[in-house]
Amino acid sequence: MSFNEHFGMDKELKVINAINEVEENHGKSSAFRASFNVICTVVGAGLLSLPKALEESGWGGLIFLLGIAVMSCWTAIILIECLNPPETDDQQLLLGQKKLITYGDIGDAAFGFFGRLSVDIFMHITLVGVATVYLVLIAQNFQSLITDDILFPPDGTNSAREWFETKGGQIICTLIAAALVSWHIFFKTMHEIGIVSALNVLVAVFLALLVIISVFTNPQERSEPEKVFFKSCESFSKCELASAFVTFAFAYGAHPILPSVYASMEKKEHYNKMIMGTFSSVLCFYLPMAIIGYWAYGADTASPIYDNLCPPENLVCSTGERVAKIIAIIAITLHVIFSYGVVINTSERALEGFLKIDEKSISLLLQILIRIGFIAVTFGLAIAIPDFGTILDLVSSLTNTFTCFIFPCCFYLKLFNSSFDKKKRIIVWIVNIIIMSVASIGGVIGFYNAIYSLIPNDD
Q1: Nearest CA-CA partner of 80 in 337, 257, 212, 304
Q2: Torsion angle in degrees (nearest 10) through CA of 288, 289, 292, 298
């Protein structure tokens, strides 16, 4: 299973700091800053899971990666076009002369309350899911430091290390992780720590360089990549190709923040060029990491890729590999501890707004209790599904498929269909139906695979 840590995607929807900044930076951002905000959202640990996705798909997965980049760019463009639908009588009646600003506004304009509700539900499921992935990642990193002989070479007498490999050890590590991310419960919004978004990119790039340098400076016996262009699916329930698709798609999951990014731009007419240039730049981040990681480790490629630096089964790790892995784990863990609050804050604030706690005299106490509740929910999910790849595939296939591909296409066709001439209507419908079909097939199979992996297997 692929693991799109996400510490950055922070789908990073993930991040949504851009949403919090719209009011203060409305119409003032340059195209460069807008591009940087998008890059901060999508370039994250997904970068480190791409080699595994390429191993699951074969070298032909590079075509997937490129194709999904094109699909994502197209839906990013038409999503923003939906902010300015044709001024027909029906649309004016539907919109009530109200200017569209958010993703939810677009859903409401296209399909009314149901459209807005669908967007909100998938957004919050994504954010809670990504926060859960972060919690699992922190716990796993603690376990890695204790049980993988990274810090403490085996001496045959360390029973504590053996206990941490059990379910009880995993629960304790997750409980510690939950305590560490609770720092954010006193902050009303995450605007004060928006620098986390930029750190997301820096950490991802640092780790990518760390892995690449380690590959060439610490040569080791490696499993050669399979000489296949595309790997075939063994069955509907065992299709690594679909898992790879879900991982690749998640790596471009910036769409929920794009309306806010667009609103912040001073020259909105530059949006299309900005988003095409941004996704091209992101692809330049992704390709080297995916290619070098898969080339270096072949069938043994792990997710996240830094696990290959000093794998548990390797009894003799070089000092360089050991140090590189320790640095990677510490860097990711610190970053994710802070990113958790940024990601979950949008959902927390939404519930607090719904309950109108700001109007109550004990608002701070209620805020703390609500946020502890969210931590408890993610803790429960992390205990129930302690596998990165599985939970990431569940989140990505269930929500990212809709927010990045299906919703933009559906909303665009609904809002603009009457404005197309016959020839353009046919072309637009064909293009969007192809995108929705590909996304749906990949999402459904990826979701089924993730669910299937949760079923105990006697093999």
Answers
A1: 257
A2: -140
For residues 311 and 379, what is the distance between their CA atoms, to the nearest angstrom? 27
Please, what sign has the CA dihedral across residues 69, 6, 56, 395? negative
CB–CB of 237/1 below 8 Å?
no
Of residues 7, 141, 49, the one with CA closest to residue 389: 49
Residues near 216 by Cβ (< 8 Å), separated by ≥ 6? none
Angle between helices 319-355 and 363-384 in degrees, nearest 10: 130
The CA-based dihedral angle spanning residues 175, 334, 279, 436, taken in that order and rounded to the nearest 10 degrees: 0
Q: By C-alpha distance, which of 398, 455, 408, 444 is closest to 129?
A: 398
Give the amino acid at 376: A
**Helix, coil or strand: residue 265:** strand
DSSP symbols for 219-243: ----PPPPS-SSPPPSBTTB-HHHH
| Predicted confidence pLDDT, tens digits, the chain (459 residues) | 444 443 344 444 444 444 444 444 456 778 888 888 788 777 765 677 889 889 888 888 999 899 999 999 999 999 999 998 886 545 544 545 567 888 999 999 999 999 999 999 998 888 888 888 889 889 988 888 877 655 555 555 556 667 777 888 889 999 999 999 998 888 776 554 556 666 767 777 787 788 788 778 766 666 666 666 777 766 655 677 777 888 888 888 888 888 888 988 888 999 999 999 999 998 988 898 899 888 888 888 887 787 777 766 665 677 777 777 888 888 888 878 877 887 788 788 888 888 888 888 888 899 999 999 999 999 999 998 887 667 777 877 888 899 999 999 999 999 999 888 888 999 999 999 999 999 998 888 888 887 877 776 655
